[in-house]
């Protein structure tokens, strides 16, 4: 039995079409056509209606670290609850451990430079962001559209780059088997060169979200 806030490689791999990146350094998976195109289109409309400049916990003084726009999606929207159902059926993580679903929108030239989704232990912001819900555990990210050029997500430490495709899911465990944070999850949302890129990000916490 998994703990309420947990998923596992074994569980994820029971899904048709799920593929694991063959590296012992990271639990990283992709699954094409995870979200149907109609639902992707609805989520894009919601992001466009509510976007604001993205923020970041710690940009190391680089104002251009994350240049995209972000949108907190309303959990009462039918498209958002449908997405949450799809995620729960796949990962089995108690929704109480999830942060609210976010959408991200990248225009030409925008990117999210190499970063990890976990908060740096002992970092300046660790206690501020993790004191209640604990560390980020799993990331589930979905590409909502095809980008004309650029916009791939690169995991440098494991030599893997993913191209945006409508409905494609990427997911990874931000921790190693012993529970410590995993630096090999470093990833870069690369610059869009042509077109616009939309993604969903769903982060889970070790403890329940406030
Ligand atoms: O847009 C991407 O490819 C990556 C997004 C990301 O890493 C994030 O939102 O944490
Ligand atoms: Fe990220």
Automatic annotation (TrEMBL):
Establish whether keyword Oxidoreductase is in the entry: yes
Asked if the Swiss-Prot or TrEMBL record annotates the protein with the keyword Iron, the reply is yes
UniProt keyword annotations, A-Z: Dioxygenase, Iron, Metal-binding, Oxidoreductase, Vitamin C
Q: Which GO terms describe its molecular function?
A: iron ion binding; L-ascorbic acid binding; procollagen-proline 4-dioxygenase activity
Q: Which residues form the Fe2OG dioxygenase domain?
A: 97-206
Cofactor or coenzyme needed = L-ascorbate
Q: Which Gene3D superfamilies match?
A: q2cbj1_9rhob like domain
Recorded hits in PROSITE patterns, A to Z, give: FE2OG_OXY
PANTHER family xrefs: PROLYL 4-HYDROXYLASE ALPHA SUBUNIT, TRANSMEMBRANE PROLYL 4-HYDROXYLASE
The name this protein goes by in its record: Prolyl 4-hydroxylase
The record lists the organism as: Altererythrobacter xiamenensis
């Amino acid at each position: 039995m998994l703990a309420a806030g947990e998923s596992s490689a074994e569980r994820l791999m029971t899904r048709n079409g799920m593929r694991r990146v063959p590296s012992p350094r990271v639990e990283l998976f992709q699954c094409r056509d995870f979200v149907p195109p109609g639902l992707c289109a609805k989520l894009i409309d919601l992001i466009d209606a509510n976007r604001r400049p993205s923020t970041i916990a710690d940009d190391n003084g680089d104002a251009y670290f994350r240049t995209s726009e972000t949108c907190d999606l309303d959990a009462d929207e039918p498209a958002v609850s449908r997405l949450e159902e799809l995620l729960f059926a796949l990962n089995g993580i108690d929704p109480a451990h999830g942060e609210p679903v976010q959408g991200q929108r990248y225009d030409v030239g925008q990117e999210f430079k190499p970063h990890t989704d976990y908060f740096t232990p002992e970092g300046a912001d660790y206690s501020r962001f993790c004191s209640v819900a604990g560390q980020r555990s799993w990331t589930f990210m979905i590409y909502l559209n095809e980008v004309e050029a650029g916009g791939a997500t690169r995991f440098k430490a494991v030599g893997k780059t993913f191209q945006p495709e409508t409905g494609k899911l990427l997911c990874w465990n931000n921790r190693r088997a012993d529970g410590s944070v995993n630096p090999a999850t470093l990833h870069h949302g690369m610059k869009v060169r042509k077109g616009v890129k939309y993604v969903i990000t769903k982060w889970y916490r070790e403890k329940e979200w406030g």
